[in-house]
Design a protein that fits this description.
The structure holds 2 protein chains of 2 kinds. By secondary structure, chain A is mainly alpha-helical. Chain A has 12 helices and 2 strands. Chain B has a domain of 225 residues. In chain B, 69% of the residues lie in helices and 3% in strands. Chain B contains 16 helices and 6 strands. The chains are: A mainly alpha, B mainly alpha. Chains A and B meet through helix 4, helix 10 and helix 12 of A and helix 7, helix 11, helix 13 and helix 15 of B.
Chain lengths: 297, 384
């Protein structure tokens, strides 16, 4: 039972990080109809910025994170303006591949800063634990859950009741109609990339807690892809739930699979999100909360 | 096609009017592989150059070219499914891996640590490598008939990760992470195709082997593209629902595309590791898939010659970036850095930038560059 609770707790914590990244993917997808494969690069960039600002330049952690988020948001906007705006109207696949190219470029630049060593992000939680009923739980997972909950709440309020949020919803619904109503669709594109960049930076910082970051940390951001597909590409709530599902599945598989299904091999938990992805899509091709496409010939 | 059409297809110039190179009197003549004299001479010259290269360049360059030709087979495969049939696949590396391991298992040493059956006959293991990979493609194909566009891209991406896990764990086949197993040994009817002989060096033999297979599979793919199967692929790509309405069996066309593409990928994997001595299970990762996508996009979507150009370009790119530090002082050749950027960093940054630049400025890829050059000189000194 303790093992289950610990697995669930850790999974929900890790899952909320996936949810943050997944929200970035979905926000970009909703406004621009692109899946941005540049998210891993942005995430690593944000985490690196925190690692440099905090431990190396001595900026306080709680100031370093927002600064890194703003920086990464800025990079996201630059990427959108330079590489994707010229391609508006081209097939979605082409745009997706462009973002892969951008991702490679971003990661090379970031790796140049990171170097071969592991870098700490200087988080205040480190390995601190709290105990309930004799079982120890890591504080950092609680921090992940709380921060994600706050961010998600803020985003929902933003989309529901601000002018810009309304503009973004309108653009997601119908770009041309939004344009005709005076919404600056370009600004919405830029803003969605900025939000996604900021969320990626925040998530990257969380990924780096305790263990630190290195050149391979970017792979974590790819696990948010099963999350968005499970939740449905165009559903913000789905992204959060998908992220949590992926986190919990991964954590519980890590806890139980070596004992109950050792034939699946060591560290199967790392690829279990993709297995879940295949199963969900075979049953529901548009994810749990996605809108089925209506096609006209 | 009828026999008459086939006869004209083989001799397109038979019904050609003198001095009117663009006038075709039959559909078959229009669709023929070599529908102009220029093409026939050009391809002939290219084939000659490709063979002469064997003795003209040093062995290390030849090895790169051989790798390029092997990759070209895989790129053609990806182009069949992504370029011609429009089904985005990021899972190509998985099928390449299956081909490589199948070939290696069939031809492997039975006494070795890893599974092997010791059948080194290439006529057996090469089709088998393609066949097993193709079978895997057929198994995956139902996913593609249920999913579309980006959903499919992400599922195939998941396939790469699952495949990587399987390759890592199935140690009795793959040798395990960081260790690997030797690549397939190739003999043709008892004649050793890879060991250095009195006439040709090992690299020359391997290059010729890969070149011959590439030529066969390239012509096959080009032929397929202009057949009814190829047309059904194009219809599915351009508008899948419309294709279904005009009588294309969507499920079947997609299954065909995936199976064929995986077959090519399998052959590519098998040949690739006759050149590279050790198969490392970790090399069939997302990076390799993206490399194949880059080959297709840089070379030219839905063109066979473009796939070959793209693959050769990507294969020669590392060599190019290694040469650059000598010309440009701000690039450092040491792995630890020092200059502004190291050559390996430059290489990966060039992948990324080239993909972006080609997609924005020349969506038809290297093939498009070639078309523009050709058309410029066709009309020279006039602009059209």
């Amino acid at each position: 039972m303790t093992r289950f609770l610990q697995g669930l707790y850790g999974g929900l914590g890790q899952g909320s990080v996936y949810a943050l990244i997944a929200l970035g993917y979905v926000i970009i997808y909703k406004s621009t109809k692109i899946i941005s494969f540049a998210q891993p690069g942005l995430m690593l960039m944000g985490a690196t910025a925190v690692a440099f600002l905090g431990p190396i330049y001595g900026v306080p952690f709680y100031l370093a994170v927002p600064v890194a988020m703003v920086l990464t948001a800025g990079v996201g906007m630059v990427v959108e303006r330079t590489a994707l705006r010229p391609m508006v109207g081209k097939p979605v696949f082409v745009m997706a591949i462009i973002t892969i190219g951008i991702d490679i470029v971003l990661r090379v630049i970031v790796n140049r800063f990171l170097g071969p060593q592991i870098r700490a992000v200087g988080d205040p939680w480190a390995l601190s634990l709290f105990t309930i009923g004799g079982a120890a739980y890591q504080v950092r997972f609680l921090a992940m859950m709380v921060v994600t909950a706050v961010v998600v709440a803020a985003l929902f309020v933003f989309f529901r009741s601000s002018r810009l949020g309304l503009a973004m919803r309108a653009t997601a619904f119908d770009q041309e109609a939004a344009l005709a109503q005076g919404v600056s669709v370009g600004a919405v594109f830029a803003l969605s990339w900025a939000i996604a960049g900021g969320l990626a930076a925040l998530a990257g910082m969380f990924v780096g807690t305790t263990a630190g970051i290195d050149q391979n940390t970017w792979v974590v951001a790819l696990k948010a892809l099963p999350a968005i597909i499970i939740g449905g590409l165009d559903s913000l709530g789905g992204a959060v739930i998908g992220g949590l599902i992926v986190g919990v599945v991964e954590s519980l598989v890590a806890a139980y699979q070596p004992q109950f299904a050792p034939w699946l091999g060591a560290s199967f938990s790392l690829v279990s999100p993709y297995a879940v992805l295949l199963l969900v899509l075979l049953v529901k091709p548009y994810g749990l909360f996605g809108t089925p496409e209506v096609e006209r010939v | 096609m009828t026999t008459v059409a086939q006869r004209t297809a083989t001799r397109p110039s038979a019904r050609r009017l003198r001095g009117r190179p663009e006038l075709y009197t039959s559909y078959a003549a229009d669709m023929a592989l070599f529908n102009t004299t220029g093409k026939r001479l050009g391809v002939g010259a290219l084939a000659l150059v490709a063979v002469l290269v064997t003795v003209a360049v040093t062995d290390d360059v030849l090895r790169l070219l051989a790798v390029g030709c092997a990759l070209a087979i895989g790129a053609i495969g990806l182009n069949l499914v992504t370029g011609y049939a429009g089904q985005v696949s990021l899972g190509h590396a998985f099928f390449v891996g299956i081909g490589a391991f199948t070939a290696s298992v069939i031809s492997g040493d039975p006494e070795a640590r890893t599974l092997g059956y010791g059948v080194t006959e290439i006529l057996l293991w090469l089709p088998a490598a393609g066949g097993v990979a193709g079978l895997a493609g057929l198994v995956v194909a139902p996913l593609s008939s249920r999913l579309r566009g980006l959903y499919l891209a992400i599922v195939t991406l998941g396939l790469v990760f699952l495949g990587e896990h399987v390759f890592r764990e199935a140690r009795f086949i793959t040798g395990g992470f960081g260790v690997g197993r030797p690549g397939p040994r190739a003999t043709l009817l008892g004649f050793d195709l890879v060991a250095p002989g009195p006439l040709l060096t090992a690299d020359q033999k391997r290059y010729l082997l890969v070149l011959v297979v590439l030529a066969i599979l390239g012509v096959l793919a080009r032929n397929l593209a202009r057949s009814d199967v190829g047309r059904s692929f194009a219809a599915v790509r351009d508008r899948d629902i419309a294709a279904e309405v005009i009588g294309v069996n969507l499920t079947r066309a997609k299954a065909q595309a995936f199976t064929l593409s995986s077959f090519y990928a399998g052959v590519c994997g098998a040949l690739l590791y006759t050149i590279t001595p050790v198969i490392e299970p970790a090399s069939f990762n997302l990076g390799l898939s993206v490399q194949f996508v880059a080959m297709v996009l840089i070379g030219g979507v839905a063109t066979i010659s473009g796939s070959i150009m793209g693959a050769l370009f990507i294969a020669l790119l590392p060599r190019l970036t290694q040469e650059l530090p000598r010309l440009l002082p701000f690039i450092s050749s040491q792995a630890t850095g020092g200059g502004l950027i190291t050559s390996s960093q430059l290489e990966s940054i060039l992948y990324g930038l080239l993909i972006v630049v080609f997609l924005i400025f020349e969506p038809r890829g290297l093939f498009g560059v070639w078309l523009r050059t050709r058309n410029y000189w066709k009309g020279w000194p006039f602009s059209y």
